[in-house]
Amino acid sequence: xxxxxxxxxxxxxxxxxxxxxxxxxxxxxxxxxxxxxxxxxxxxxxxxxxxxxxxxxxxxxxxxxxxxxxxxxxxxxxxxxxxxxxxxxxxxxxxxxxxxxxxxxxxxxxxxxxxxxxxxxxxxxxxxxxxxxxxxxxxxxxxxxxxxxxxxxxxxxxxxxxxxxxxxxxxxxxxxxxxxxxxxxxxxxxxxxxxxxxxxxxxxxxxxxxxxxxxxxxxxxxxxxxxx
Amino acid sequence: xxxxxxxxxxxxxxxxxxxxxxxxxxxxxxxxxxxxxxxxxxxxxxxxxxxxxxxxxxxxxxxxxxxxxxxxxxxxxxxxxxxxxxxxxxxxxxxxxxxxxxxxxxxxxxxxxxxxxxx
Lengths: 228, 119
What we know:
The structure holds two protein chains of two kinds. Helix content of chain A is 46%, strand content 16%. Chain A is α/β, with parallel strands linked by helices. Chain B has one domain. The interface between A and B is medium-sized, with 25 and 17 residues.
């Protein structure tokens, strides 16, 4: 990926209590992408001290408002700063920069407006119960939004400026991933999925979504569909 | 009149007076104030004439007055929870917008040169 493409892509990293991994994640990202926006979502474990020391742009939520809210804050900031493309990247070390580079190049070349990570296409050694939950979520979206995607809860995405402007996330917490898919489906943007390899570590699994959380997401998603 | 009726009537009167006071000071909206006032009056009437609920229940084909009250209570409580939930969602949304606004304003040196303060 050439320098202008990397510079035109602003990577938003939402951080909530990720002191264990945030420094490594940001360091790795900065080797390729100069414009990284780290949004601390009211952490209380020292994440802010770490990310503000290393991230070129660091933003802090005074109180925890959820990953969706943090990503939208970073996205809006990047748009204000003139970003051409915006990427979302997890702070827990699950995502790989090499996947982000491939997806960024795809959006930059005009292949699509929205590049979404797909762990089923990649080399992820996904726990079986996680695969079942993701497949179920994908099926839900096929019925509710009419969009056929295999991995709807992958936090790795790259958006063109137009896509970022059209897809405003208003669901604060983890239901934002579902809301984002709905927004993409309605916006008539060109969407493509790209193989991503998720690093499932003991740490990332402990931070990840459990089965009970999935039910909560479905509840919040259903409520947001009813009440907006 | 039983002592229990006196206690319930006292509560109904206090509730009605509070509703009127809040309405006159415009602390609550007309609909909310009127609804509380109406419920207070209804409570007082049902306390004074306990058999009236049975008559109403029979007219509706329910049978017992206590059952009618229970059904109305369940419906009323569910509706109340729903209204509170919708209002809570709106407050949460406003809080999020406020937090996000402050966060971005903090990092952008607004009013000076519109350049972000790099960390």
